[in-house]
């Protein structure tokens, strides 16, 4: 439980502010900490969103919606960076091993949405006629938020 409190303390300032309805009213937001705990539960346990236990006090649709909002806001990447900095400050990071993820697109045309300017990685993928990219978690998040990834060699 102590570790979860530490992670929540790091994550809380990274969360975007709750959206306020200009006309007022509506249902009060579920506590961010409860939603965060539910998201961590799903990610760590591998449980499907629809199988989320009710003990978190938030519906599966609320938890999933908040996960999407926070993901699009870049919370996961920033949280990952902060935790790495915290661990590195205590000499607990060993970069002799690293985990990479990969992504595969159905068609190279999928890399160019209407009105979207291709980033470096998309342009290079099309030039090389590749459909698979391998990236670290931080670069993966940056790619999905349409921010430039770290340097790419053409």
UniProtKB/TrEMBL annotation:
> AI2M/AI1M-like HNH endonuclease domain location, by residue?
104-140
Where is the Insertion element IS402-like domain positioned along the sequence?
8-80
Task: Spell out the InterPro entries in the cross-references.
Answer: AI2M-like_HNH (IPR049030), IS402-like_dom (IPR025161), Transposase_6_like (IPR052909)
Task: Recite the lineage of the species.
Answer: Bacteria, Bacillati, Actinomycetota, Actinomycetes, Kitasatosporales
Q: Which PANTHER family match?
A: BLL5188 PROTEIN, TIS1421-TRANSPOSASE PROTEIN A
Q: Where on the tree of life does the source sit, at the highest rank?
A: Bacteria
According to UniProt, the name of this protein is: Transposase
Which organism's genome codes for this protein?
Answer: Streptomyces atrovirens
